[in-house]
Design goal:
The chain has about 425 residues and is mainly alpha-helical. The protein has 22 helices and no strands. The longest helix is centred in the C-terminal third of the chain and has 29 residues.
């Protein structure tokens, strides 16, 4: 995937962005900063309120089950209300709404309610992604996804500050401050961003068509329309979707953002609760370096090769986290840094590959289907994860490695040409 020289640095990448894509990038920090603060200590906050490891697994599973239901209607709601209005309404419910519940939660069922409310974000996942990609060309998409990743990773550098507050006032009180800040910041982001958003061209065309149909016809078409027919004729899209689904199942299980990351670091590797915030800083700093300096350089190579390399590095890092001895902060930091390199190499290229593979008027349906499949399978993974952690915490990383190897195998099928990938020029498939 050759990338124009305009995308070789942050300033030039931002300058090529236009309209909704540019707006999405500008307001991303108002979501990214509070998210990284509250999410890092969320699992320890739950445990401080009496939630067990198995119950954390149940909460994850129930959230995914609810998400699968919301995902079923994500595409049709987005096409019915429009990308802009859908993003406004359901972002407000799924983020500030969920934060307010987390703020007062002190029981298993309160945390379940918060997780279910947050799972409404599955609808926004469709509408917001379409706001980012639909009016943009591939060059702008690459720049936007890279910049959004840079913004969200940069915010993680402040995680050690969160650790200082945790040390001073404890996990529970510090987390409530983070959650309250998230509610305020995310609300401001949603309203400000909506002010500058405009409905996408494809969105306007679909709204015009839907204006001539009854609501029952719209829902029928949205749930049982052309999506499967389109996918039957696009095996490459099916495989890229499989990789995207598997990777999104793996994120809440074996990555830095997993609810089991902090417990694993403290309970298995013996790192102090306030000290683990250093790992968050290392993770973010490493990713920032990769996104700013490495991604523009390797973008000239085949995106599938980059994705394979990123997945392999993550698998190696997780394997090291399984075998390293406890109470070794230095080695743990090195493992997290290696993981961050792999994750940041893989992430922008899978986002771009999925956007390319889903090009067309059925994109909303494909995104919705992807969210539904991810949520259904994620419910199973969440249900099992709690038991796996109790049985042996290292099992979570063993399962994660299996998922990563599965992703690598699928991408190899695409790269070797056994399944054609429409996002690549034929001659680029074997050129590094």
């Amino acid at each position: 995937m050759a990338v124009n020289s305009k995308t070789t640095n942050i300033i030039q990448s931002f300058q090529i962005l236009k309209g909704n894509t540019r707006t999405s990038v500008i307001f991303e920090p108002l979501w990214g900063i509070p998210f990284v603060l509250y999410n890092f200590y969320l699992s320890l906050y739950m445990k401080s309120q009496g939630i067990t490891d198995q119950q954390i697994g149940f909460i994850i599973s129930i959230g995914f089950i609810a998400g699968s239901i919301f995902s079923l209607f994500g595409g049709v709601i987005t096409d019915t209300l429009g990308r802009k209005k859908t993003t406004l309404i359901f972002d407000l419910i799924s983020w500030p709404g969920a934060m307010l519940i987390y703020l007062v939660a002190n029981s298993f069922w309160m945390f379940v309610l918060a997780a279910v409310t947050n799972s409404i974000v599955r609808i926004v996942t469709v509408s917001w992604n379409l706001m980012v990609v639909e009016d943009a060309d591939n060059e702008q998409r690459v720049a936007a996804f890279n910049l959004i990743s840079i913004i969200n990773i940069s915010t993680g550098i402040i995680t050690p500050l969160a650790g200082i507050l945790v040390k001073l006032i404890g996990v529970a009180d510090a987390e409530r401050i983070f959650i309250a800040f998230a509610a305020v910041s995310m609300t401001a982001m949603i309203f400000l961003r909506n002010h500058f958003y405009t409905e996408t061209r494809v969105g306007r065309e679909i709204l015009e068509r839907h204006g001539k149909k009854s609501l029952s016809d719209i829902f029928k078409a949205g749930l049982y329309g052309k999506t499967f027919a389109v996918l039957r004729n696009k095996p490459d899209t099916v495989l890229i979707t499989c990789v995207f689904v598997l990777f999104n199942l793996y994120i809440p299980l074996g990555t830095y953002s997993s609810l089991y990351f902090a417990p694993y670091m403290t309970e298995v590797l013996g790192i102090d609760k306030s000290t683990i915030s250093i790992l968050g800083g290392v993770n973010s700093a490493t990713m920032l370096i990769i996104f700013v300096f490495v991604i523009p350089l390797i973008s000239i190579f085949n995106k599938l090769i980059n994705m394979i390399g990123g997945l392999a590095l993550q698998a190696v890092a997780l394997f090291l986290l399984i075998i390293i001895p406890a109470n070794n902060l230095t080695v743990t930091i090195l493992c997290i840094a290696l993981f961050a390199v792999g994750f940041s190499v893989f992430r922008p290229f899978i986002d771009v590959a999925f956007a390319e593979a889903t090009e067309g008027s059925e994109r909303a349906g494909i995104y919705s289907l992807f969210n539904t499949i991810t949520s259904v399978l994620g419910a199973l993974v969440g249900l099992v994860s709690g038991y796996l952690y109790v049985l042996n915490p290292r099992m979570l990383y063993i399962v994660s490695i299996i998922i990563l190897i599965s992703c690598i195998s699928i991408i190899i099928l695409l790269y070797t040409g056994k399944v054609p990938f429409s996002g690549e020029e034929p001659e680029a498939r074997v050129r590094l």
